[in-house]
């Protein structure tokens, strides 16, 4: 605890921060880029009636659109140029990551180093444009079919509306992809993650005000609101603890004699995270489960009877929904972990560089041991994800809590915050080291 407190104090050392000119420039650039993103979430697409669109979205609460609208910071509900947000890029990146594990050609590119990584990134950008075009056209066609008692959501449907909508949405996604890369290179933190983070956090004040309004009207008691606040802090602390938790396997390197000198013999460790899959399992599980509900909502009551029954059984908060949700989170946790971490490849790399785990023979035995340890960690990680993601569903269904407490959004917010704080800390350390080097050079010259 002492070391963690010292690290936090050194991170927010305002004296060191005031002298870190480069870090301040990066922070101002990051803030300016996020402000530009938030302004773009209020620039509407041409040819849409906002009143009708608002009525339609109010009818679709709880569906897949509601979750995507949360990630986009309300841009989808307002149907702006950033309605698709950065989600096509994330989908393309995940698909490329999955394809790398399946395609030998892409796997060879991944092993080429920096040049291979650039080619994979280029393929990801092409995939982003393709996905954004398909999704943009789907949104354009879907908007033409939407309507309420006030009229149609599209003022002048037709090929011109579809073309302008697709161009605007694809252009908005490409701009956000470029903006995220600029934040990563010239700012602080991961740009793509910060864009999603700012979209989620932007809705937080409205959610808190809605909760306090319910307390003011008597729909929620003051004690229950205080209980929610305390629980939110406890869940955040639990997420931070688990996300930082890792199993460190000791790796020993043998001693080697070169001439009259002895090299090697040191020991290191191989860190295995408790939650290797991150937030991917909840995102996949939520998207698949909410798909029937969204399709039934857009059908305007014209859906077949079996779809209505499935929608009723898989409604948020229903027992079958919670059971399937937990099962899919566990499945995707194991599936994605198996993709991002290959025990056999790790064991071969250790053997190649002469490393070994004490008590375990190199090669296949090491791979089996890594697979055994990783399986146990994934069980605990999947249970943690299931608890954090099911808790908000129970609160929303049983107690009508109006904001998405916990779940995928809270996981993203906490993870991005931890990563950004760690990068700020590393920038401050680098600045302090540069200062020490300059002082040592000045002292050397004086002597």
Write a structural description.
The protein is mainly α. The protein folds into 2 domains: 23-202, Orthogonal Bundle (Preprotein translocase SecY subunit); 204-405, SecY subunit domain (Preprotein translocase SecY subunit, Orthogonal Bundle). It is 73% helix and 6% strand. It contains 19 helices and 6 strands. The protein has a two-stranded antiparallel sheet with strand order 1-2. A two-stranded antiparallel ribbon has the order 3-6. Strands 4-5 form a two-stranded antiparallel ribbon. A hairpin with a 2-residue loop joins strand 1 and strand 2 (151-152). Helix 3 packs antiparallel against helix 10, helix 3 packs across helix 11 (191-202) and helix 7 packs across helix 9 (114-145). The two termini are 42 Å apart. The model is unreliable at 1-12 (pLDDT under 50).
Which architecture of the largest domain per CATH? Orthogonal Bundle
Question: Between the first and last Cα atoms, what is the distance in angstroms?
Answer: 42 Å
User: Main beta sheet: strand number and arrangement?
Assistant: 2 strands, antiparallel
Please name the fourth-level CATH homologous superfamily of the largest domain: SecY subunit domain
Return the average pLDDT rounded to an integer.
80
The level-1 CATH class of the largest domain: Mainly Alpha
Major sheet strand order: 1-2
CATH topology of the largest domain: the name is Preprotein translocase SecY subunit
Beta-strand portion reads: 5-15%
Spans of 5+ residues with little confidence (pLDDT < 50)?
Answer: 1-12
> What value does the Rg take, in angstroms?
25 Å
């Amino acid at each position: 605890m002492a070391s963690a407190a010292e690290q936090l104090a050194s991170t927010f050392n305002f004296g060191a921060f005031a002298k870190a000119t480069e870090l301040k420039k990066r922070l101002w650039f990051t803030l300016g880029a996020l402000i530009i993103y938030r302004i773009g979430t209020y620039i509407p697409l041409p040819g849409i009636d906002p009143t009708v669109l608002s009525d339609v979205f109010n009818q679709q609460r709880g569906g897949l659109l509601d979750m995507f609208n949360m990630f986009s910071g309300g841009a989808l509900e307002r149907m702006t140029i950033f309605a698709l947000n950065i989600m096509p890029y994330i989908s393309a990146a995940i698909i490329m990551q999955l394809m790398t594990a399946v395609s030998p050609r892409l796997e060879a590119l991944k092993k080429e180093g920096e040049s291979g990584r650039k080619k994979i990134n280029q393929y990801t950008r092409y995939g982003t444009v393709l996905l954004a075009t398909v999704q943009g056209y789907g949104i354009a066609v879907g908007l033409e079919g939407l309507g309420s008692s006030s009229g149609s959501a599209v003022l002048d449907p037709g090929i011109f509306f579809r073309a302008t909508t697709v161009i605007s949405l694809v252009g908005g996604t490409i701009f956000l992809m470029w903006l995220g890369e600029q934040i990563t290179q010239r700012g602080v933190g991961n740009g793509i993650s910060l864009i999603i983070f700012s979209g989620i956090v932007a809705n937080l004040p409205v959610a808190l005000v809605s909760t306090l309004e319910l307390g003011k009207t008597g729909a929620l008691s003051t004690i229950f609101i205080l209980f929610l606040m305390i629980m939110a802090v406890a869940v955040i602390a639990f997420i931070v603890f688990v996300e930082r938790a890792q199993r460190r396997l000791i790796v020993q390197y043998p001693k080697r004699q070169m001439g009259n000198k002895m090299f090697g013999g040191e020991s290191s460790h191989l860190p295995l995270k408790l939650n290797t899959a991150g937030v991917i399992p909840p995102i996949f599980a939520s998207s698949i489960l909410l798909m029937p509900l969204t399709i039934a909502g857009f059908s305007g009551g014209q859906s077949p009877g079996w779809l209505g029954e499935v929608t009723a059984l898989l409604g948020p908060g229903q027992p079958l929904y919670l059971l399937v949700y937990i099962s899919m989170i566990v499945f995707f946790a194991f599936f994605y972990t198996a993709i991002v971490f290959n025990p056999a490849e790790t064991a071969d790399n250790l053997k190649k560089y002469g490393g070994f785990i004490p008590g375990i023979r190199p090669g296949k035995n090491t791979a089996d041991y890594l697979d055994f340890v990783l399986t146990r960690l994934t069980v605990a990680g999947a249970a943690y994800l299931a608890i954090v993601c099911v808790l908000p569903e129970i609160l929303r269904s049983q107690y009508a809590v109006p904001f998405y407490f916990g779940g995928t959004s809270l996981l993203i917010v906490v993870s991005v915050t931890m990563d950004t704080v760690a990068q700020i800390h590393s920038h401050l350390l680098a600045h302090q080291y540069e200062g020490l080097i300059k002082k040592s050079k000045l002292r050397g010259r004086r002597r």
